[in-house]
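Question: does this match?
>
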Amino acid sequence: MHEHHPALSSFRFKRAKTDGLIEVLNEGSYVMAEYSEHTGVVKWQRIVAAPQREKIERWLDEHYPAQRRRTSR
């Protein structure tokens, strides 16, 4: 059973068309941030309160952990 996060209820998470990017959207479908599965970095596009921001970043890290790219030899 997933833990309910009231601070996250007004946000949704969607894979972007760009490979490895997860978009964080608010209730109005505005892109608030982009998360890279390749690097684990969140790039914020709009202002979000610090407590919500921390919860979103933690949730993204738990559900979409950063993956190391394999290099060809």
Q: What stands out?
A: The first strand starts at residue 12 and ends at 15. The two ends are 42 Å apart (CA to CA). The first helix runs from residue 50 to 63. The chain is about 20% helix and 25% strand.
